[in-house]
Structure formats: C-alpha cells, structure tokens
Amino acid sequence: MFYHLAITLAVVSWTVACLAASLPSREDSGQKPLPVVIWHGMGDNYRGDGLLQLSNEIRDIYPEIYIHTIYLSTDPSSDRSATFFGCVDQQVEAVCEQLRDNPELAGGFDAVGFSQGGQFLRAYVERCDDPPVRNLITWGSQHNGIADMPACKDTDWVCKSARNIARSNVWGSYVRDRIVQAQYYRDPEDMENYLEYSAFLADVNNERGEKNATYAKNLATLENFVMLRFKDEQTVVPKETSWFAEKNVTSDDVTLLRDRPIYQEDWIGLKALDERGGLTFLEVPGEHMQISTEAWKKMAKEYLGPRKVIGNGLKLQTAF
Ligand SMILES: *[C@@H]1O[C@H](CO)[C@@H](O)[C@H](O)[C@H]1NC(C)=O
Ligand SMILES: *[C@@H]1O[C@H](CO)[C@@H](O)[C@H](O)[C@H]1NC(C)=O
After folding, report:
1. Could you say which ligand is closest to the alpha carbon of residue 246?
2. Per its UniProt record, what Gene3D superfamilies does this chain match (predicted)?
3. Average pLDDT of the chain, as a whole number
C-alpha cells in the first residue's frame, strides 16, 4: 500500500517537473549546493589521487560545490599512518573541531565516508553534529565491526605491522588504544570481551548497559543515512557489516539490521530514521572501494547538491 502510494507520488512529481520545465529550477535560482565532507578510508590520505578524481566528478555535476576532505595531519604520509595507528575517540574529537572551525561548513553539509571513514563520520553525527549533517552516505563501512583484521597489500608494511600487532592480542590495552582497526573489532562469538574492552565501537553503537541518548537523538536528525555495500566485497569480513547486519561466521546465518536489538530498541536512532523513510540500503557492483563512476555520480545526483524540491524524505528509490 505504502509502496503504491510512493510510486503514485513519484509519478505526480515527475509530471509536475515536466510542466515546470520552462521555469527556473531551484538549482538555477542561485541556491548553492550544500558542502560535502569526505572521510577517506584505511591506507589512503586526504590528498590521494582517487579522492581528487571523485571530488572532480562531484564538481562536474555541481561546479560551485565546496568539498572538504578530512585530514588528521596536513602531511599526507602522517595522515595515512593515522588510518592504522591512533585512538579513534581522539581522532573523532579532532575532526569535530576541524569541521566546527571551518566557516564554509557553518550551514551544514553532506557527509561521505569511505570504509572505516563511514563509521567514524557516524560517530561525528552522534557525538558532535555541529555543524549538522544532512545526508550521511557510507561506502563499504564496518558499522557492525569486523570479525578479522582487514587484509593488506603485499608491500604495505605499515598496514601489515598494524595487522600483526592487532592479531597478537586484540583486547590487550596496548593494541586496543593504538591500533585503529582493533577499535572496531567485534566478534559476535565473544561479546563479553567486546563489551568490556572495545575502545570505540561498543560505545558508538550504544551496546553497553548505559545508553547515551544524545547519540540516538543526533543520528535521527539526519535526512538520509545511506549505507552502500559492495557486491563482490572480499576485504571486509563479514561484508554484511556494511548494512549493519550481523553474520554468524560458523553457521553463515545473517541477522538483518531490522531484526536486531540495536534497531528494535532504537539504541542509536536508526529505527526513528527508518520510520521516516530516511534509512537506505544499497548495493553497488565491485570489490571493496572499487567505486564506478556511474554509481558515484548517481549518489551525487540523488543525495548531494541543493535541497531537493520534494522534501519529507520521500523520494524515488534508484537502483544503483
Ligand atoms: C553522551 O554523549 C555526548 C556527546 O558526545 C557527551 O557530551 C555526553 O557526555 C555523553 N553522556 C554520557 C552520559 O556519557
Ligand atoms: C552461531 O552458530 C553456531 C552454530 O549454529 C551456534 O552454535 C552459535 O551459538 C551461534 N552464535 C551466535 C552468537 O549466535
């Protein structure tokens, strides 16, 4: 019934758009696109070629858009190291300050997170959200953690050393306070240690007894939270984490987000968001972070740019 209604409304608005084609659209009427903030993933840096290319593809669509790529150090090599070594809570805090201090962002922005940058931007929304995020779009992120440390390229020694240290004793205080990936490690077969020792994820997912109501309140203010998953994902174990689902790696059973307590008891505002039509699960072709120009531009057209004419979170679902 609801589905039918949505289709009808979409058709109606399409008709309106056609009739109004000769009038100036809101995009032409001087309304600037909302700025975009991008948080890159593990092993990347804020000046990487890939990021530059993706930023330029957004500018092809919105020539006047302001884009900020988050950095933890202005030196690209240290910025890259900070994707492996550091304390995530402190990194998120530094980013809250970086974004608050940027006058270009004062009116709010759309946030795009790549891989681990996605759950870190979600933490920004939950803990700070000042200035506020309109749409949060995450690509291949580990919202429900990882059950194994991500694999490294053969020649990536920084990555390999982080991985080896982490695997040696993931809950030891040395590892959990210093290795970034250990701070979102979550093995569903060992929830006891996770709830006791997790340095980042258990808190930001509000999984402990005491819930922080601010997290749920802030996340529910998003207009859209879009989680993209890579169809041929091999890097992130398990890939279901990109849709906030949980996988039992022994039985292969997958519990979807909507069937989990974090959603049903609305620990972080996802249910409230979903009931407003603001929660979207999309799958894109490709291996981890192999973003096609086509999928990227579709995202940019759908979720970035000026405010859409039809509000209330009601919009056509595009298949990516
Ligand atoms: C809840 O989170 C907010 C935002 O990070 C923080 O200011 C507050 O101290 C937290 N409350 C508790 C009880 O931890
Ligand atoms: C995962 O599946 C196995 C085998 O069916 C089962 O014994 C185990 O309890 C399950 N784990 C969780 C966390 O549900």
Report:
1. 2
2. alpha/beta hydrolase
3. 88
